[in-house]
Amino acid sequence: MNGIEKITQQIQAEAQTEIDGVLEKAREEAAQITARYEAQAQAETAELTAKHQRAAAEREERLVSAAQMEARKTALATKQELVEKAYAQALERLCALPEERYVQVLAGLLVEASSTGQEEVIFSPQDRERVGKAAVAKANELLAREAAPDLPEELTNTKVGAILDKVAAGVTAIVQGTAMLTLSQETRPMRGGFILKNQNVEVNCTFETLVRLQKAETAGAVAKQLFPEG
Question: Which residue of 84, 156, 194, 217 pairs with 161 in a disulfide if CB–CB is 3.0 to 4.6 A?
Answer without folding.
Answer: 156
